[in-house]
Design goal:
The protein has helices spanning 74-78, 104-112, 117-123, 129-139, 157-169, 193-204, 228-235, 248-251, 255-269, 291-303, and strands spanning 2-5, 17-30, 37-39, 44-47, 50-53, 62-66, 170-173, 183-189, 211-213, 220-226, 270-273, 283-288, 309-314, 319-326, 345-348, 351-370, 386-387. It folds into 3 domains: 2-67 and 349-387, Endonuclease - Pi-scei, Chain A, domain 1; 74-81 and 149-346, Endonuclease I-creI; 90-144. The chain is built from 10 helices and 17 strands. Helix content is 25%, strand content 27%. It has 390 residues and is α+β, with helices and mostly antiparallel strands.
């Protein structure tokens, strides 16, 4: 028996001998996953009726995938949080005797209004936040840096909602001087100020200062905080929309944390498609350009008892993926909807079932993982073979 794939290193964690293979391969397409599973004809695959060789599959069969079990302990989540950076803040002003562009009272008011040093500097025609910091240092108005987490947010359900927002709408950046990422940003619509307030309230519990603003003429609201510690935590989930992902520890979040993570992600990238007259009668859809991220969300939903399909589509500029499920199957999202019968995916115990869509036999060349027994693990996806020319 052999599982076929092009890059043998991608399955280095599975036991078995990897060997070159040339011959017949069966491509199994399902309704629940956008990439076909490609195997040799004698490879046993798990179906709703048990293990059977791929060559004996029929379009009416259902493939079965094991739903990841177990929860990551709170201590395991805490271990993902980087230690705060060591720094020595400057305490002596460089402006002795200089004439400043802002009075002490005006600067105090700006700081009281929650403006960042960068915003204050730009208000007075300066390019760098260091200018405003020097003014504050000169007047004795410097405030606590608010860039180190005071306490452990990973054991707070609300924090995972903030992470969900970030997966949908966030990124990390560096300061103008470069170096490690130290700024965490979210970008919301102008009508989504409540999300910005949520980010500020939750991170404020841990002494992280958050500010947001809309640039004149812009259609979005930029939310940001300066925290190298938080930025390093977020980069464990990728950098840039195409590279977002979830570590295995987060796929195994407990139910309470997982629901909040999906709620936040849904708020940013979720929509409802109507099927029966109103927006609340249809399918919930969460879209992304990152297949690894949506594969993880697909698994989290299954752990929450929600059977979803992972689909793909091509736009003129990129390939996009989406997770689709009935709104009514995730009532905890807070979006009402009538019950829709799913015909191509289902949950049965600890298994996610997805109906076979098409079977194709081809001659292929690639690498094969030679197995001595049936594969008893989830194969979330595999990689395209180089089909031999006829």
């Amino acid at each position: 028996m052999a599982l076929m794939f092009e890059d043998a290193n991608l399955y280095a964690s599975l036991s078995g001998e990897v060997s070159p293979y040339e011959g017949e391969a069966i491509s199994i397409r399902t309704f629940g996953y956008p990439i076909p599973l490609q195997v040799t004809p004698d490879q046993e695959v798990l179906t709703s009726e048990g293990w059977q060789p791929a060559a004996e599959l029929r379009p009416t069969d259902w493939l079965a995938f094991t739903i990841p079990q177990g929860d990551t302990l709170d201590s395991g989540l805490s271990a993902l949080l980087p230690a705060p950076p060591l720094s020595a803040p400057r305490t002596v002003s460089r402006l002795s005797g200089a004439r400043l562009p802002v009075s002490r009272s005006a600067l105090a008011q700006h700081l009281s209004d929650g403006l960042s040093y960068q915003q204050i500097a730009e208000l007075y025609g300066r390019k760098h936040r260091a200018s405003a910091f020097d003014w504050a240092l000169h007047y004795g108005l410097t405030r606590t840096a608010h860039h180190v987490l005071q306490g452990d947010p990973t054991n707070d359900p609300d924090f995972w909602r903030i992470v969900g927002y970030w997966l949908a709408e966030g990124d990390v950046t560096t300061s103008r001087k470069g170096g490690d990422p130290n700024v965490v940003r979210w970008t919301f619509g102008l009508d989504e100020e409540s999300y910005a307030e949520d980010v500020a309230a939750v991170l404020g519990r841990y002494d992280i200062n958050v500010n947001w603003h809309a640039v004149n003429g812009a259609s979005s609201l930029t939310v940001r905080c300066s925290s190298q510690q938080l930025a390093k935590f977020m980069t464990q989930m990728g950098h840039g929309a195409h590279n977002k992902r979830l570590p295995s520890e987060l796929v195994l979040l407990c139910e309470t944390y997982a629901r909040e993570l999906v709620r936040g992600y849904w708020a940013g990238d979720g929509t409802v498609t109507p099927v029966g007259g109103t927006m609340n009668d249809g399918w919930a859809r969460i879209a992304s350009v990152s297949l690894p991220l949506l594969t993880a969300v697909h698994q989290i939903l299954a752990r929450l008892g929600v059977a979803s399909s992972l689909m793909w589509g091509v736009t003129p500029t990129q390939t996009r993926y989406e997770v689709r499920f009935p709104v009514s199957s995730a009532s905890w999202l807070g979006v009402p909807g009538r019950k829709i019968r799913q015909k191509t995916v289902a949950i049965e115990g600890a298994r996610l079932l997805t109906k076979v869509k098409a079977l194709e036999s081809t001659q292929a060349r690639g690498q094969a993982l030679m197995l001595t027994s049936a594969l008893g693990e989830v194969i979330p996806h595999n990689f395209a073979l180089r089909t031999m020319p006829k």
